[in-house]
């Protein structure tokens, strides 16, 4: 566990048990040891049709732990409650979950359920997100906020106003100046008194990747001039009392509390000014940005890590608002945050098989170098290289090995060297680098996964997540590896890991399956993933503890989309496709044989696009070309 820094990024939810398997503590470190859930057992039960109660789901697999969600929500709430009590703050914290982080129905429903005792609400950034938020909040606390963010048209605003009519505690947050006129007009038409917020464009800018849209020139929100014009419009329409909330968002993954305090103080000044201008201000909504320490370094100096705890975050926010409001004699506002990443990141683990590995360096007796066909220059490189080996002159040896290889590649391209000879030279080169320079070759493990579907942030913005074998952690890994996915795309590989490593220590796959887990990916990855190469989303199971030591129950299981499902996404019609293929089979193979062969095709439509489990790990590594 030290090798993979599990204690650093995984605590209090993930640890390693005596069998060398990852265990999950869904209630955090307060979980009693006999209540820990062995992740390997969950995976076996979900995927193995032969195990008792096994579900036979195809990999890859997302394992959700609703209790982790509950613990995250409660920890966030109690961090604010304690900061508020300690600092004598005279209002409360009332958060919302931004559904964009993970819109999965069960995730959102669970958050609403677990947050009901403390009025936890939802944030929507589009019309479908608003529809799902309204529907999920039907079972929530009536005081829970329903924050409507994002760019809005008349339809979005009408929907949000209807939500107010339906007694949801809806706030329409103005993102652009033009929206205010629509809100004034439509609310009059619908006879609803809206509650309005506005999103301020702060000067405070965060320098990390996620801060690129913040600051004065940022994409979102209203400038001071916009704000003053909105105030005037509302005042002229006798609706200034409707303006009750100030929102800002300086970017996800805020690296330090110093930057956070800077932004919150600036926003608190705007809040106080709005009060002075006559708005009936009640809530300050500090947006998202509460970060995750993906590498467990607590360094806070990159998008990978933050330097504060939940408690320090809450304390910095409460303090910054209190100082400004006290100075301006403004009543302390309700503090709302839209923390997404911090709530959902830990709750799920993506499990996938590492299916194969290549041993790049053959042994000397496997190398049969036919000198006959080598050019004079190449032969002299070979002798110079051998000479350097005798003298233990590694640098010279590598130089001639490299030169020999280059020359042979040229000869091959010209057509004067056969593939057997080139293979022999490649083997010789690998052997030299391995044995003489003593660098362990990095092996490529093929993983039964699409990075574009399941870890899109790695491909798009270089976000690194902890990836760890979920078993055999009591054995020393022997291999350095990079991971290559199933897509025909050269970007479909993972060659950066936490701790700045360019490879991942892994075990040699034995006879059984070798499972890796990607952790802390519960936010954004499912929402952003695409269907590159028509690989669809993974299967999903939801896991709760059950009675008895080390027991768990799979309370919900869902196979990932089949080939037919993903084909439908791109407007193909699997039924019609199958009929066409069946006719063709019957035409060319005869009616009986054809219809029998067509049933094999039918099965492919029904199965998931990923590789079926293999018992052996003998595939050679893929060279992705594309
Ligand atoms: N609120 C708004 C307006 C956002 O744009 C985002 C995400 O970027 C969030 C909340 C969630 O941020 P985070 O996941 O960092 O908590």
Automatic annotation (TrEMBL):
Tell me the ranges covered by the Orn/DAP/Arg decarboxylase 2 N-terminal domain, including all copies.
90-345
Q: Name one GO molecular function term.
A: arginine decarboxylase activity
Q: In which pathway does it act?
A: Amine and polyamine biosynthesis; agmatine biosynthesis; agmatine from L-arginine: step 1/1
N6-(pyridoxal phosphate)lysine-modified residues are 100
For this protein, what reaction is catalysed?
Answer: L-arginine + H(+) = agmatine + CO2
What Gene Ontology terms for biological process does this UniProt record contain? L-arginine catabolic process; putrescine biosynthetic process; response to cold; spermidine biosynthetic process
List the InterPro entries: Ala_racemase/Decarboxylase_C (IPR009006), Arg_decrbxlase (IPR002985), De-COase2_CS (IPR022657), De-COase2_N (IPR022644), De-COase2_pyr-phos_BS (IPR022653), Orn/DAP/Arg_de-COase (IPR000183), PLP-binding_barrel (IPR029066)
- Cofactor(s), by name: pyridoxal 5'-phosphate; Mg(2+)
- Active-site residues are 488 (proton donor)
> Enzyme group, top EC level?
lyase
What Enzyme Commission number(s) apply to this enzyme? 4.1.1.19
The protein's UniProt keywords, in alphabetical order, are:
Decarboxylase, Lyase, Magnesium, Putrescine biosynthesis, Pyridoxal phosphate, Spermidine biosynthesis
Say which family it is in.
Belongs to the Orn/Lys/Arg decarboxylase class-II family. SpeA subfamily.
Protein name, please? Answer: Arginine decarboxylase
Q: From which source organism is this entry?
A: Gossypium hirsutum
Q: What is the lineage of its organism?
A: Eukaryota, Viridiplantae, Streptophyta, Embryophyta, Tracheophyta
